[in-house]
Amino acid sequence: MDARVERLIREATATPVRRWSLAAGGVAVIAGVAIAAGLAVGAEGPAVQAGGDDAFAVAPGCDTVDPGAVESLLEGAELETAEHGRLDGADSATCVWTSVSADAAAPRFLHVDLTAYFTDRAGEPTGSESAAGQLSDLSPVVDLEGAAPVPALGDGAMVWPGASGGTGAEVAFRRDNLVVRVSYGGDEGDGGVPLSYDDARDGAVALGEQVAGSL
After folding, report:
1. What is the rounded CA–CA span in Å between residue 139 and residue 158?
2. By C-alpha distance, which of 184, 193, 166, 205 is closest to 24?
3. What pTM did the predictor assign?
4. Keywords assigned by UniProt (predicted)?
5. How many CB atoms lie within 10 A of CB 41?
6. Who contacts 149 (Cβ-Cβ below 8 Å, separation ≥6)?
7. I need a surface site. Which of 97, 197, 198, 202 has the fewest CB within 10 A?
8. Nearest partner of 41 among 84, 85, 89, 86, judged by Cα
């Protein structure tokens, strides 16, 4: 396996915090919370489950992403990672597809994170407010060249150059208490030429629109 393919796999399977920090070009970006070893106990603090007003009681799984939409971006795509687990005050699913093992296919990756934030035990902030705050914390990426809002995905939705040499793309948007993050990148073909940012952006936005439509 060549060095570029190995790098693509590392980028596709990196944690959201690491990937989004790279995407911001060194700008400090808070991109979520780390998986907790245990949830806090007590009268206040992170909730262990969704509140009554939280639209998403759990994070949707990888079946939210249409296989046909994935195949259109990654020929011969294989689901490499499908994880679902609790965070402090949230529930999260991570899905990673790659085409690095497909014969004659361009080595590419697609990473989708879906995180449902719960209303705090004290009632503030609500899950929706926490999700909005997570999206707002990513605002420094709008200063990156090529970054732009994505009105079709709702208020605060953004697309910007990703971590794969500036040729991949990242998309983030919110639905109520759910934040969806999409990262897409790789090579144009099997010759090692990176996918252009325009193509990566269009692919990431299209995938985001598909996921949004299925929620």
Report:
1. 9
2. 166
3. 0.79
4. Membrane, Transmembrane, Transmembrane helix
5. 7
6. 142, 156, 157, 158
7. 198
8. 89
